[in-house]
C-alpha cells in the first residue's frame, strides 16, 4: 500500500462497536512481530519508545530519534503506522505542524496529540486550549495539503491525571466538551487514557461523533465489552513493553542465579 491507501485503510478501521485493536510497539523488531501476529495496523507508544532508548516519557526522547525510529518501523512493515507524538514537541501551532510534517514525510499516517502541558504541569486551561485546537487544525491542513487523510487521535489526559477513580465521573462533562472541540477542529479520534469505568466510557462514546480510544490497563473492561460500549479504538500503551522487559529480566535472573 502507498501512504494514501494506508491512511484511508487506517481511518476505516475505526468503527464504533467494532474497534481497531492496537498492540503498541516501539521499534522495527516489535513491529514485525506484531504484524506477523495478525495486526492490521501499527501504533507506537511514547513511553515505550522513550524507555527503549533509555529516556523518560514526556518528550525527553530527542525528536530526531523518534522520527528515525518511526521511519525504521515504516520501512520494515507494510502496515499503516500511527505515532504517539505527545504534544508534537511544540506548544506553538506552526511548530507543531512543522514537526508533524516530518512524520508525514517518513510515511506515518497518524498521530496521538495530547492536551497535557508536556513541559509544565497539568492540562492546558480553557483559555489556552484554543491554541491547541488551532494546532490540531494546522496539522490537519498541513497533512491535507499532501493529499493524505492524516488521522489525528486527539488525546485528553483528564482521567490519566486523576488517580482517584471515584472522581472520574465528575470529569466526564469536561471530557465531552473537549472531545467536541477537537472534532470541530479537525480531529479524527478521541483518546481518553486512564478511563476504565464501563458506564462512563459508554456515556462518552454516545455523546461524541468521534471514535473513542480506550487504553487497556488493570481494571479495564475486556475487548468484547469495550466494543459493546461503543468504543472505536483500543490500545495497550506501555503494557507490552513492560511485559516484555519483565520477561527479559526474569529469564536473565534465572541464568545469572546459576553462576
CATH class: Alpha Beta
What is the SS-derived class?
A: alpha/beta
Computed CA radius of gyration, to the nearest angstrom: 18 Å
CATH superfamily: Phosphoenolpyruvate-binding domains
Helix and strand element order: HEHEHHEHEHEHEHEHEH
Average pLDDT works out at 94
Shape, principal axes of CA atoms: globular
Strand order of the largest sheet: 1-8-7-6-5-4-3-2
Number of helices: 10
Number of domains: 1
The CATH topology label is TIM Barrel
Assign the CATH architecture.
Answer: Alpha-Beta Barrel
Q: Give the amount of beta strand, in percent.
A: 5-15%
Count of strand segments: 8
What is the terminal-to-terminal distance?
Answer: 50 Å
Low-confidence stretches: none
Helix content: 40-55%
The biggest beta sheet is recorded as: 8 strands, parallel
Pfam family, one: PEP_mutase
Organism: Rhizobium chutanense
InterPro entries: ICL/PEPM, Pyrv/PenolPyrv_kinase-like_dom, Pyrv_kinase-like_dom_sf
Keywords: Lyase, Pyruvate
Describe the structure.
This is Isocitrate lyase/phosphoenolpyruvate mutase family protein. Keywords: Lyase, Pyruvate. Pfam families: PEP_mutase (PF13714). By secondary structure, the protein is of the alpha/beta class. The chain has a single domain, classed as Phosphoenolpyruvate-binding domains (TIM Barrel). Helices cover 46% and strands 11% of the residues. It has ten helices and eight strands. An eight-stranded parallel sheet has the order 1-8-7-6-5-4-3-2. Strand 3, helix 5 and strand 4 form a beta-alpha-beta unit. Helix 2 packs parallel to helix 4 and helix 5 packs parallel to helix 6. The longest helix has 19 residues. The radius of gyration is 18 Å and the shape is globular. The N and C termini lie far apart (50 Å). The mean pLDDT is 94.
